[in-house]
Amino acid sequence: MQSKDIQSVIALMKRHGVAAFDYEHGSVQLHLKLGADADGTATASPYPAGTSDPETINSPGVGIVLYAHPANAGSAPALPRKAAKGEVVAYIKAGLTLRSVLAARDCHLHRALAAEGTGVGYGDALFDVAP
Fold first, then answer.
1. Rounded Cα–Cα distance for residues 112 and 120 (Å)
2. 90 or 28, which is more confident?
3. Contact 93, 22 (CB under 8 A)
4. What is the distance of C-alpha 131 from the center of its chain?
5. Contact, 121 vs 107, CB < 8 A?
6. Each residue of 21-58: pLDDT tens digit?
7. How far, rounded to the nearest angstrom, does the alpha carbon of residue 112 sit from its chain's CA centroid?
8. pLDDT, mean of residues 118-131
């Protein structure tokens, strides 16, 4: 992959509002992140203003919800359980892309609101949570 290819990918990411891009082919790996979280600084909520319910964890995108990484042979951890801020609690699969769903704060995950393997939309509630 050449510099001009990477610049084209970045331009497409900006144009279409894509925050993260991962590409792997053979020995080539490319991981790009755009926005404030790319440099480790504080990030804004991925949900539209006023739509994030503090008692749920919501989907950051459109796709199929998975509660365990597909490469892991085991099943998803049983609920209810504790989750630490920044912990991956689910994945959204869109095509060959997996997007992590993170706990925004330390919390207790009480129950899953979407069945494993079902389609979810942007902002759909995935978990009931409590502090």
1. 12
2. 90
3. no
4. 21
5. no
6. 777 777 777 777 776 444 444 444 444 444 444 589 99
7. 16
8. 89
